[in-house]
Design a protein that fits this description.
31% helix; alpha+beta
């Protein structure tokens, strides 16, 4: 899960993707946003 955008990378939880891709793939990963 590496995207070309290196801005705002989320390296926590072993996720190597930008926030935009993370939010778009959050449901596919099974991540539930509490906020």
């Amino acid at each position: 899960r590496v995207c070309g955008n290196s801005h705002g990378l989320i390296r926590k939880y072993g996720l190597m993707c930008c926030r935009q891709c993370f939010h778009s793939n959050a449901k596919e990963i099974g991540f539930i946003k509490y906020r």
